[in-house]
Amino acid sequence: MDVEKVWLEYQSGLKAFLNKNISNTDDVDDLLQDIFLKTYKNLPSVSDQEKIKPWLYQVTNNAIMDFYRQSSKESGILSEELWQKQPEENIQRELSRCIAPFIYSLPEEDAELLVAIELDGISQKEYAQKSGIKYSTLKSRVQKSRKLLHKVFTECCEFTLSHSGGVIEYSRKKKGCTGC
After folding, report:
1. Shortest CA distance to 41 belongs to which of 79, 80, 69, 1?
2. Which of 57-66, 99-108, 127-136 is most confident?
3. CA angle, 173 as apex, 172 and 179 as ends, to 5°?
4. Which of 32, 58, 79, 137 has a CA 20 to 30 Å removed from the CA of 112?
């Protein structure tokens, strides 16, 4: 696997994913550089070419989490001050690790659609135009693909939701799950 080829293929998508999660463009550029170094050092450990993209997004997701952990340490906020938000944020962080692997477990057409819209940050209108699909048709496909993704999550885990629909806690079902 050629690192340059892999990086050229995925760099713009990873940057869009970073921009979606981090507001400061300088921080995005720094993280992108760190991700490139990790890719350079660790890409040979990825044995299956089909797993390169999920692996890259997992590395990127971990870099985002590390960035926010470091930012909270530098800001001098004490963990006691964050006690109310911590469990929900931890749950969201844990579940976010499952998103890319679960998306890639979907049929190829659904996975491609969700990666572009949910992970790469391409708008539905833009995706419809690029794909030559009517916008209304694409919206229906996105809904169908999201329902399939939801099904994968619920087959893997049981969720307790707050009144507003946020995940309060979750537990893996006894059968286990292979996505994350």
Report:
1. 1
2. 127-136
3. 60
4. 32
- What the block records as the tokens of 64 is 């985002």
Element (H, E) at 120: none
Q: Which residues pair with 171 in a beta bridge?
A: 158
Instruction: Return d(Cα 106, Cα 102) in angstroms, integer.
Output: 7
pLDDT category at 86 given cuts 50, 70, 90 is very low
pLDDT at 84 exceeding the cut of 60: no
User: The tokens of 153 are what?
Assistant: 């999550």
Q: Identify the pLDDT of residue 82.
A: 45
The pTM score is 0.48
d(CA 156, CA 180): 9
- Residue 89 CA to chain centroid, in angstroms? 15
Cα(32)–Cα(25) distance, integer angstroms:
10
